[in-house]
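Most newcomers find our protein records easier to grasp once they have seen one. A learned vocabulary of local backbone shapes supplies the integers on the structure line. Here is such a record, shown just as it appears in the course material:
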Amino acid sequence: MELVGAIITLLGAFVLLIASIGLIRMPDVYNRLQVGTKASTLGTILSLIGLVFIMPGWSGKLILLIFFIMMTNPVSSHVLARAAYFIKIPFTSRTVVDKLKVSERALTIKTED
């Protein structure tokens, strides 16, 4: 079981390594947030699952940590992205659609009626 845990933990570390390379390659803050959140969530969860196999006595605590990470990482990323949007950090020139701007415009039109 320890070998399986070590392999899963190594896979988690590999995902985190690929994510760090992706953070450097992404063109703007919004894409970096997306890469960082998805990869850090997956990499950390894989590492913790590997630890469950290595240390079965800690499984309850590790599963609780996995649940906590799955709940907080996407929420914190969303808050950071909205904050970046509202202080007007620019998109990359390759961004085609700004759905938040479209939804705000529709909300403004509804409240003016």
Q: What stands out?
A: The chain has a mean pLDDT of 87. Residues 66 and 89 are 32 Å apart (CA to CA). Residues 2-112 form one domain. The first helix runs from residue 2 to 25.
